[in-house]
Amino acid sequence: MIASFQQRAQKLEPLSRALFRMMLSGIFIVAGLNHLIDPSRTAARLESSPMGFLATAIAPAQPLVVLSGVALLIGGLALLLGFYTRAAALGLLAIIIPITLTVQVGSMASMGPLFKNIGLAGGLLFFIAHGADTFALDVFKKRAQTAR
Q: What 3-state class would DSSP assign to 105?
């Protein structure tokens, strides 16, 4: 019975990885849109966070929010489509690390979002290591190159 379950689960593995990638991308797409639709609200949150001064020492909050919104949206869409998946995941990881350090660290009220970002980082590390193997533009690109 266990062997039968494992065999069925192995058949679902490629689909589950594709769904994992697509579901993971959603949070970055939504966050990017939120940054771009209402940057002043997100900038105010950055400025009021205990470690926000680390980011605002580099540049004013609003341009940082717009820049991160564009990057989150582009990276999220690339991850969704499986387009340059490893690079998209690496770029998104490079974005959420400073966001996590400046907005979530230092406040007990943001422990949930802190651990959410840690979980997201784990998902991104998976795609940095493995890339996309099904239902992805990377796969079509690789097939086209090998067909030449």
A: coil
Dig out the tokens for 109 from the structure: 């009220």
| Residue 4: Cβ-neighbour burial (10 angstroms; 0-12, 13-18, 19+) | exposed
Which residue do the tokens 């340059």 mark?
84
Q: Which amino acid is at 132?
A: A
What's the CA gap between 136 and 80, in Å, rounded? 8
Q: Is 11 exposed, middle or buried (0-12, 13-18, 19+ CB in 10 A)?
A: exposed
Q: Report whether 104 contacts 48 (CB < 8 A).
A: no
CA distance 21 to 15: 10
- Give per-residue pLDDT as tens, 36-91: 999 999 999 999 998 999 999 999 999 999 999 999 999 999 999 999 999 999 99
Handedness of CA 73, 130, 132, 126 (dihedral sign): negative
